[in-house]
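Fill in residues.
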C-alpha cells in the first residue's frame, strides 16, 4: 500500500469510500499521468508499465497520432449513433480492416467491449446455423455479461454468486500442455484432448445443435496458454465437417500482440468470425466482430448494433492506431524473442519458474513451488508482483491458479527499456525466493 500521508494514500481512501469492493483494486498505484511505456503516480514515482491496461495499449500511452486524430474528430461531432446517422470514421475503419482480415469481402460491425463482441459473434453464429448451442473451453475468459461469463472457463472470481447461468453453453478442456487435463505429454499424446469435442457432441451438445465453437488462439486471462498448432487445426476440421462456425476470440491476442495482426495466423487456420477489442481503440472503448459478407449479412437488419457501438472518437483513434501497429509489428517479434530468451535464462537460476511460454510480445512465466509436482506458487506470484511494483515495474498475474506472471509491453517499446524492466522482475523473483 502507499505510504501513510502520501497523496496516493489519500486517493486510495477516497476510492474505498465511493467505489464498491467488487471492483477489485489490482494495484494501489494512483496514476497522475502516462506516456509511452511509463506511468507516473500522484506522488511523482515512475513505473515501467508491463500491463498496458490489460492488453489495450499496444502502441503505448498517448501516442501522438492517436491523440491528434481524437482532437480532430472533437471539432466535428462526439456522437450520432451509427444506426441513426451514417458517419465516415465507422465506414473508414471497417474499410481499413478488410485487407488484414482472413475473409473474402470481410465486413465488420463495431461495439464497445470485448464481451459485447463475443456475445454478438454468438448471436450471428446462431442466426447463420439456426442452432442454439455454444462450446467454449476451460481456463478461458470471454467477458462479464451473463452469456460471456457463462462461456468463461473459470469460476472464481468472475462467477461467484452470479448463478444461474445461461443455458446451451458447454465447455471442453483446452490444450494446456503444461497442465494437461488428460495427464498426457505432448506431442506423444497426439492432441487427444480434441476427442473431448466429440464427447460433448455425444453427451451434451449434438453437432447438429451446435452453432459455434469459441476459442482464444492464446488464452489471455488463462495465463498466455498457447495450444499446439495441430489442435487448432483439428478444431477447424471438426467445425468444417459439422457445419459449426469457428469463432476466434482475439480480444487480448489481436492487433500485433503476437507479431501478426491476429494470433490465429500462427496456426495456419482461417476462422469464420473474429472478435477483437482492447488494442483496437488505443485506449478508447471499441470492439468488433468481423467475418465474410456471406456470414455477416445473415442476421436481420436492426438485430445487430448498439447506441454507442463504433463511437466516432473511438473509430478515429483506431484508424490512426492501425498505422502505428503496422509499424510496430516487426518490433513485437523482436520484443518477444528478447523476453522469451531472458525468461529462459531466469528459469535456469530461479526454481520458482516452472514454465516459459507465449507468442510474440505476449510472454509469460508460470511459477510453481516444485517443478516436479507443479504445485502452483500463488502466494509467491503475488509477492513477486508486489516486489516488482515496489522496485518500479507494474506487472499482471493471470492463470488458472493465479500463478502466472504475464507481460504486455507496448509493441514499440525500446528493447533496452524492456531489459531494464526484466532486471526488476529478475531481482523481484530472487528477493521472494530468498524470503
Amino acid at each position: 500500500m502507499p505510504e501513510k500521508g502520501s497523496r496516493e494514500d489519500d486517493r486510495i481512501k477516497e476510492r474505498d469510500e465511493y467505489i464498491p469492493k467488487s471492483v477489485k483494486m489490482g494495484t494501489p498505484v494512483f496514476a497522475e499521468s502516462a506516456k509511452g511505456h511509463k506511468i507516473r503516480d500522484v506522488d511523482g514515482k515512475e513505473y515501467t508499465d508491463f500491463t498496458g491496461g490489460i492488453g489495450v495499449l499496444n502502441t503505448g500511452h498517448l501516442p501522438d497520432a492517436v491523440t491528434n486524430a481524437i482532437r480532430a474528430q472533437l471539432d466535428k461531432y462526439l456522437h450520432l449513433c451509427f444506426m441513426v446517422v451514417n458517419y465516415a470514421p465507422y465506414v473508414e475503419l471497417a474499410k481499413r480492416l478488410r485487407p488484414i482480415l482472413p475473409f473474402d469481402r470481410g465486413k465488420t460491425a463495431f461495439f464497445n467491449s470485448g464481451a459485447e463482441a463475443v456475445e454478438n459473434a454468438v448471436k450471428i453464429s446462431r442466426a447463420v446455423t439456426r442452432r442454439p448451442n455454444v462450446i467454449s473451453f476451460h481456463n478461458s475468459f470471454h467477458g462479464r455479461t451473463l452469456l460471456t461469463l457463462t462461456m468463461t472457463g473459470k469460476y472464481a472470481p468472475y462467477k461467484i454468486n452470479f448463478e444461474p447461468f445461461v443455458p446451451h453453453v458447454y465447455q471442453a478442456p483446452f490444450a494446456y500442455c503444461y497442465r494437461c487435463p488428460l495427464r498426457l505429454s505432448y506431442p506423444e499424446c497426439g492432441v487427444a484432448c480434441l476427442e473431448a469435442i466429440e464427447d460433448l457432441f455425444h453427451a451434451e451438445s449434438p453437432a447438429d445443435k451446435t452453432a459455434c465453437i469459441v476459442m482464444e488462439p492464446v488464452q489471455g486471462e488463462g495465463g498466455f496458454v498457447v495450444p499446439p498448432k495441430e489442435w487448432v487445426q483439428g478444431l477447424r476440421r471438426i467445425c468444417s465437417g459439422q457445419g459449426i462456425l469457428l469463432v476466434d476470440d482475439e480480444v487480448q491476442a489481436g492487433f500485433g500482440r503476437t507479431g501478426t495482426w491476429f494470433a490465429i495466423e500462427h496456426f495456419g487456420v482461417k476462422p469464420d468470425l473474429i472478435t477483437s477489442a482492447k488494442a483496437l481503440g488505443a485506449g478508447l472503448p471499441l470492439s468488433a466482430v468481423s467475418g465474410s459478407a456471406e456470414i455477416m449479412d445473415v442476421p436481420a437488419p436492426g438485430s445487430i448494433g448498439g447506441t454507442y457501438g463504433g463511437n466516432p472518437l473511438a473509430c478515429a483513434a483506431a484508424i490512426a492506431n492501425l498505422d502505428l501497429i503496422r509499424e510496430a509489428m516487426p518490433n513485437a517479434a523482436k520484443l518477444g524473442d528478447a523476453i522469451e530468451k531472458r525468461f529462459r535464462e531466469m528459469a535456469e537460476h530461479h526454481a520458482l519458474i516452472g514454465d516459459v511460454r507465449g507468442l510474440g510480445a505476449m510472454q509469460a512465466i508460470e511459477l510453481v513451488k516444485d517443478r516436479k509436482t507443479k504445485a502452483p506458487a500463488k502466494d509467491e506470484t503475488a509477492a513477486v508482483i508486489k516486489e516488482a511494483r515496489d522496485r518500479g515495474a507494474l506487472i499482471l498475474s493471470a492463470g488458472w491458479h493465479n500463478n502466472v506472471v504475464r507481460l504486455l509491453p507496448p509493441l514499440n517499446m525500446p528493447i533496452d527499456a524492456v531489459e531494464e524492466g526484466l532486471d526488476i522482475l529478475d531481482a523481484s523473483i530472487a528477493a521472494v525466493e530468498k524470503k
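The two ends are 19 Å apart (CA to CA).
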